[in-house]
Amino acid sequence: MKILNIIYIHTHDTGRLVSAYGYGVPTPEYQAFCQDAILFQNAFSVAPTCSPSRASLLTGVYPHQNGMLGLAQRGFKLDKRLHLARYLRDHGYETALCGVQHEIGYYTDHALAVDNLGYQRDLTTDSSQYDEEHLVEWDNHNADKLANWFDERTDTQPFFVSFGMHATHRQYPQTIAKDIAVSSARPPLNVANDPETRQDFAAFETSAEYADHNLKVVLDALKRNGLYEKTIIVLTTDHGVAFPFAKCTLTDSGIGVLMAIRVPGCVPAEYNGLLSQIDVIPTLLDLVNLEKPNYLEGKSFAPIFDGNEYKGDDYVFGEVNFHTSYEPIRSVRSKRYKYIRYFDDYEHLNLSNIDNSPTKTFYAQEGLREVTKPKEALYDLYYDVMETNNLLDDPRYLAQLTNMRQRLSDFMVRTEDPLLNGPIPIQSSWKVNKREAYSAHAKDKSEYENLPE
Hints:
CATH class of the largest domain: Alpha Beta
Number of domains: 2
Strand order of the largest sheet: 5-4-6-1-7-9-2-10
Oligomer: single chain
Helix content: 25-40%
Number of helices: 11
Shape: globular
Order of helices and strands: EHEEHHHEHEHEHEHEEEEHEEEHEHEE
Number of strands: 17
Distance between the termini: 52 Å
């Protein structure tokens, strides 16, 4: 069997808000690729926060198993021995990083990832001249450098490349693209349609255009160098969009992700079964005929690429531990039902876990601090796609509630979830906001549980 190359192409905070999923976001290159691949309609991240989600996809185990309980730049550390780049390097692949990673240090700290995570080559350009709003321009330079590497590469050794983009992370570009009309920039359906939120979403769309351009640059380079038909291409994002009620929540708006994978020779199609990003590593290792480590938590969906029937996952699991504040949450989702449980006693939203934005400001002016969250919730996703009608006390759903509670309990026991032993102790090396804090980047030290020593 011929060993295939692998390229993992990922954005920040995109959810499924691209045109391939029916949204009016100008992403024609995403759409074209998804029509040449297997498009997964029901793919989910295991965590709606940046470092934990990526760490789990790239290790094949959950955040509470791999050490990445929160953001890498806030002192949380991954068990680096589990990283896919390291595994593939040790099995004959040339490994390269281009652009964003979020498994060690800050997401622009590409030098830290080389050697530490198993990458041998750093194909990333200097980001120091850009503020956060203009890091999308850094994305462009990284795409160009990666394309040049493909043009110049003569080595026949198989490669694994991670190409990560800042887009569509905040802060979005504030100069709206000329082809985007603010008046028709419809925010996500679970966000109020208001002039402030439309302007904010137009900025998201502008950021997405940068990602779309860079996808074309990279795919064109693969094609002109005869690599497109020799490479498994994984196109995805880490979690939902950085709007209120999405990122850092275990609703589908928080954990639902775009995912399209192309394997040379596969027939383009869509797949409607339930899948988790925890399943990606087992699948890739099957596709390249490498042995799967016995610690992997996911299941391989490789049969899909040969046109075979594959049931998908019966249940997918999600978790939050720390984003900026401590907010322990767990969820289990089936095709129809979602069960969410909070493991703390704070009934209000942890506002610092919502990225600052014009949309957040809009909601803050409309009583965001008074919004409460349930201790437990059960949702029927066929009738309640926004997950607002909690069926916990509805006797008609008692059997489903009992089943989902048991599924979550079994999962936590099997994976040795630390929440079984009570609250996770905050270590002195972690930067953690108080749960009442409004902003993640507060200057007042009283806004934090602790600051790293």
